[in-house]
Specification:
With 397 residues, the chain is of the alpha/beta class. Helices cover 42% and strands 15% of the residues. It is built from 14 helices and 14 strands. The strands form 4 sheets. Strands 12-11-10-13-14 form a 5-stranded parallel sheet, sandwiched between helices. Helix 1 crosses helix 2 and helix 7 packs across helix 9. The protein starts with a helix and ends with a helix. Bound molecules: FE3-S4 cluster. FE3-S4 cluster binds next to strand 10 and helix 13.
Amino acid sequence: MKLTSEEQSMLDGEDGKAAQKSMEILATLGEIFEAESMIPVYSVQIAGVSYANLGEAGLEFLSEMAGDGKVRVLTTLNPAGMDRENWKTLGIDEEFAKNQNRVIEAFAKMGIITTCSCTPYLIGNAPHFGQHLAWAESSAVCYANSVIGAKTNREGGPSALAAAITGKTPNYGYHLEKNRHGEVLVNVDVAIKGTDSFGVLGKLIGDKLGELGKKIPYITGIQEASVEELKSFCASVATYGGTALFHMEGITPEYNNYPKPVKTDIEINQDDLDKIRSELIDDNIDIDFVSLGCPHASIREIAKIASLLEGKKVNKEFWITTARPTKKIADEVGYSRIIEEAGAKFASDTCCVVAPIKGRFKGIMVDSAKACYYGRAKNKFKVKIGSIEECIEEAIK
Ligand code: F3S
């Protein structure tokens, strides 16, 4: 791989140890994926922030990088294992909170913006069409590539941090136009509405892509989709199909840039969707936890939740997971007061998947197909998917 003189001097250690280590990581990746060169990135999103995932080994790596490492581009963080202000109310123990704060401090020392959200594109890490990024967090990667039309591979924690410190990433995969065309034609022959339904659709398409061994669907038949519905779809299709990019005719910006696949590989009707939805509802579920905001809730979603909860009381543990800047807007507008008076809790900076709550609840109700997957696999909960309205009905029952 050809390196510029600036990149070579980082590799030679002239910009310090963290830059050298970072360039070593990126050059190795570039060799493996046969990149010809590095490219500058506009921004970075780092995942693997929860102390529950990192542990002491991860923290040691971070502390080493924080020794003399400073980020060169806008860099934000994925959700942490706890709300950084409200952790006690959410039942997080003191020892975990201490360790989680050590992680955040190491990131902050490197100049990273510690917003802790999986929807960086809603809170200021907002690239435009065509820009190159180095993002981790599968749902945000899928959103950036597909909905924004920016270009990023699915980075891991170390490669994203390395890109932040050098401002570069190897030029391969989704950075190249030749790897961005649709591979599978999917026709959706039914109207889809609501974040839960878009999540169900994402699982259906993701499962089928897995069977076909393909990654990039070209989807026709969707008439309209909101930002919130698309973020739910991205989270789901990335979870179940490993998809980092899709095209949606008439909706996503690149659908017309590449030839459309010629024959329809997947036809989707209401029965298909009903079947997949039933797979996201466990038998004999006893719901004692409701969580909305996977991916992190937008201000529009919080407004809707507030209007549905106004004057009501919840009878179950109920979290709304969102980015702290979004929560601040909700505070100012008065949505937070309505929601908290109803007994629901904000869990900013974190979510029902990355918080250390394994086994704490029996059954979780969510509007997110991704949260269903990890609720079962990671936290050992029974799960039920439903619309935002149905989740709130369950909470106040
Ligand atoms: Fe975000 Fe947590 Fe869902 S990181 S996408 S809210 S699992």
